[in-house]
Structure formats: C-alpha cells, structure tokens
Write a structure and sequence with these properties.
alpha/beta; five-stranded mixed β-barrel; 6 helices
C-alpha cells in the first residue's frame, strides 16, 4: 500500500503544485455544503486519482477539493467511502493516509447519524467525544508499516479534547444548542431495527452511523488529532422510531449543516 500511496500523492502534487493543506476535512451524507465556503484552487474527481476509491452513494459527490476556508489551506473530501460499498477497511482509510502525505496536521470529520439519546431531536449537532466500533474489521489489520504508526496505537483520546472545548465555546457564541456524546459505528447499509437501537443505547451510544470510525482510527494511528460532528437525521428511540429512507437522511442533514459549517469555519479561523 505504501507504493500506491506514493503514486497517489505524486499525482495529486503534480496537479496542485506548491499548495500544502494544513487540515483535512471529510464531509458526510448530505453535508457537502461546506464546499460553498471554500476559496477553491483545485478540484479533482476521485475517478481520476490513481488507486483512489470511488464513492457510489447518493449525497457523496466524489471530489477532492483544495482551497482556503477562513484563510486556512484545506483539502476536503466531498464524499467518503464506506465498508458497505464493498471496500475493505484499508481502502476506507486510504484517503486519510494520502492526506497525511499531502501535509495535513489535523482531521475534521462529519457524518449523518441516528440519535439514540432520548434528549436528541432531528437537526441537532453532536460533537463526538468517543466512539464504539461495531464494524466487522479494522483498518489496521494486517502487516503494520512503522512509517505510519505503531503496531498497537493508543486510543485513549480518539477526539482532540482541546478542539472539543473550543467548539463548545464557538457554539455558545453562535447561539447553537449542541450535544456531546459517543458515536457507534456499524456496517450498514440497512438502518437499525428497534432492538438494535435499544442495544446501542444500552452499551453507551448516543448516535449511530456507518462511517467515521475507520478514518479516525487511521488518523490516530499516524498521530493526527481528530475532531468530528454528527448531524442527527433520524431518531432511534422507542416510541419515536419511524420508517426512514436515504433521501430523508440527506434532506435532514442538508437543513442542519449550517451549524456544522459555521463551527468548522470558526475552528479553522481561530486555530
């Protein structure tokens, strides 16, 4: 994989020249609106990048975008990859490896998720302070490349505490009600049953989704601090569970993404 990462990075560098991103951003389902806030310098389709996976899910545009947000150089994934698309965990985490080689020092991640905390409402934003990995595999399985990180990386702080504190301060200034909690990652692609929602709450989850954890594990393996938010697009609480479609998730996420966008922009501006 190291050789493939080198080839991918070389290709991107040939197109972007001296541009060096400081922060990587991964946008989840229905959350691509942050791209409208970017002073775009380069945009590359995933399908044009050697060894790069291609997004197959509605709501994921499939572009790697380079530019400035709040005058900070960033590389943004407009669309991500999921285990349920048929990719292995190493492929899901592959773009994070590439972004590290391109120069990022921090990773911001967003996702659309179902709320299992009874205090949550559709449209709420939850900052991740931890996660529970119920995916059937891990992006670090296989031979370890010490160039990227240790065989047994520490995960006592998967999400950067200082950035979480700053995000709360920003949300308070903006007048946004936000939550903080634990994200449960599952394989999908089907949405959860009522019993599964209940189980996820019992084991300590506040929200559930089908992404984020592989990218965060990959980043933390390389020592990259992470910050992540979930936009709550449906509720998995007994008595409030209704039939949900992917289109419903996209619509709910797009309505709530203004909060996420404002927090991300302010964090970049004040860092």
């Amino acid at each position: 994989m190291s050789e493939q990462i080198n080839q991918t990075t070389e290709y991107i560098n040939e197109l972007t020249g001296s541009f060096k991103p400081e922060c990587g951003i991964i946008l989840g389902t229905g959350l691509g609106g942050l791209v409208n806030e970017i002073d775009i310098r380069f945009s590359i389709s995933y399908s044009d990048i050697p060894h790069f996976p291609v997004s197959t899910v509605e709501g994921h545009s499939g572009k790697l975008i380079f530019g400035y947000i709040s005058e900070k150089p960033v590389v943004v994934m407009q669309g991500r990859f999921h285990y349920y698309e048929g990719y292995n965990m190493q492929q899901v985490g592959y773009p994070v490896r590439v972004m590290r080689e391109l120069g990022i020092k921090r990773l911001f991640v967003s996702n659309a998720s179902g709320g299992v905390n009874p205090e949550f409402e559709i449209g709420d934003v939850m900052i991740l302070n931890d996660h529970i990995n119920l995916l059937p595999s891990n992006p670090l399985i296989g031979a370890n490349d010490k160039y990227f990180g240790p065989r047994f990386p520490d995960m006592s702080e998967p999400y950067d505490r200082a950035t979480i504190k700053k995000a709360h301060e920003i949300a308070g200034r903006l007048g946004y009600k936000i939550h903080e909690g634990v994200y449960v990652s599952v394989s999908g692609p089907c949405f959860e049953t009522p019993a599964e929602y209940k189980y996820m709450r019992i084991i300590g989850g506040d929200a559930v989704g089908m992404s984020t954890v592989p990218e965060v594990i990959t980043a933390r393996h390389m020592g990259i601090p992470c910050f992540a938010v979930s936009v709550i697009t449906d509720i998995g609480v007994e008595g409030r569970i209704v039939e949900v479609t992917h289109e419903d998730v996209i619509e709910a996420a797009s309505k709530a993404e203004v909060k996420m966008t404002a927090i991300f922009k302010a964090l970049l501006a004040e860092s």
